[in-house]
Design a protein that fits this description.
- It is built from ten helices and 15 strands.
- By secondary structure, the chain is an alpha/beta fold.
- It is globular.
- The two termini are 34 Å apart.
């Protein structure tokens, strides 16, 4: 059954939704876009051009769109500070919700949204797109295969040369905690997914070197311990002299009992443990190259499909709003740690916020 939806947000990254992510799912018969909403009439032209919507089904008022167009769900592709108000409107109209990350711009707002969705009986998913890219999905498949024994620890490197003002998008140079909020939001989520457990403790140091043209911290080193005993270390940098592992080109190394797996710039290599050899030392380029998983869709396009199948009675998508609170809690726990200089108990922070917000 084709699900009817309203696209909320057509400018900025919303253009990519209109141009790339939605059309492939329309073609597959999963969705029908019945309306689009954006405050900018220029942005609404993206919905008209790429989705074929007539002007009369392109709105600048979200309430009017939901009043006039019957739909099963809406998307939210607008700045995080506006997510909660759109969630409220969607739930008032009986709509399910698929939202861009993060759930909201604060942990408090994210907890409130999750509680409202649960009370309503509706479903809400969050598009943590980088976790569902081809290379990360392939590494996840290997880690979950059981072939390598217990996972010990994970390393992640994300380093860029974006020190000049505007090189990482003007607004990111003007906000606090920019690396943790705008970069680590994806990477900590991927690490936790690989670890396969909730994060117990996180410790973060974040700063901005004198040559970084940022108002907030553009570099961070983060240590994590998970409830299953797995450890992780994250290196995130936007002001280095050279970019080694930028967006979609990140470096991950996972150390398991029976293998070392290295993902570097979308190439996955394996080093199998050899019980008959000791004192071995290898270059990472010497590992066995593993084929990346192949399929029709990745990232946001795949997540839209997962969400629709959930609505149609399938399994809940992995990034449903309740489970995705873990991702939001990781980011704000890291921010708190970087401000206080102390490790933060992630689950305690999340539960404290739930109590304070009545969630």
């Amino acid at each position: 059954m084709t699900m009817k939806m309203i696209q909320v947000g057509c400018g900025g990254f919303g253009r990519s939704w209109c141009e790339r992510f939605l059309p492939v799912n329309v073609k597959d018969g999963l969705i029908e876009v019945v309306a689009a909403v954006d405050m900018s009439t220029d942005a609404l032209k993206n919905a008209q051009q790429f989705l074929g919507l007539p002007p009369e089904r392109c709105y600048t008022d979200v309430r009017r769109a939901m009043d006039e167009q019957k739909a099963d769900f809406c998307t939210i592709v607008v700045p995080p500070a506006f997510h909660e108000s759109i969630v409220d409107e969607a739930l008032a109209h009986g709509l399910h919700i698929l939202s861009e990350k993060p759930i909201a711009d604060t942990l408090e707002g994210s907890v409130r949204i999750a509680a409202k969705v649960k009370k309503s009986g509706k479903k809400m998913g969050v598009t943590m797109s980088h976790r569902f890219d081809q290379d990360k999905t392939t590494l996840r498949d290997h880690l979950r295969s059981g072939r390598y024994g217990a996972l010990d620890y994970i390393l992640c490197r994300f380093t860029c040369d974006c020190r000049k003002f505007g090189s990482w998008g003007k607004f990111r140079h003007e906000i606090k905690d920019t690396l943790l909020v705008e970069g680590a939001v994806h990477h900590l989520d991927i690490i936790a997914d690989f670890a396969g457990a909730k994060c117990d403790t996180i410790y973060a140091e974040a700063w901005n070197p004198r040559w970084g043209e940022y108002a907030g911290d553009s570099q961070a080193l983060v240590t994590m311990r998970f409830e299953n005993g797995t450890r992780a270390f994250y290196e995130g940098a936007k002001t280095n002299a050279v970019g080694l592992n930028g967006w979609t080109q990140e470096y991950f190394r996972t150390e398991s009992e029976l293998a070392t797996l290295v993902l570097d710039r979308r190439e996955l290599r394996r080093f199998q443990y050899d019980s008959g050899s000791t004192w071995r030392s290898h270059r990472e380029s010497e590992g066995e190259v593993l084929q990346l998983r192949g399929q029709h869709k990745w990232a946001n396009a795949w997540l839209i499909e997962k969400f629709v199948k959930w609505l149609q009675g399938g399994e809940p998508m992995e990034t449903n709003v309740e489970d995705n609170l873990q991702s939001v809690a990781l980011v704000f726990a890291a921010v708190q740690s970087s401000h206080t200089g102390q490790p933060v108990k992630v689950q305690e922070l999340l539960e404290k916020t739930r109590r304070e917000q009545g969630g």
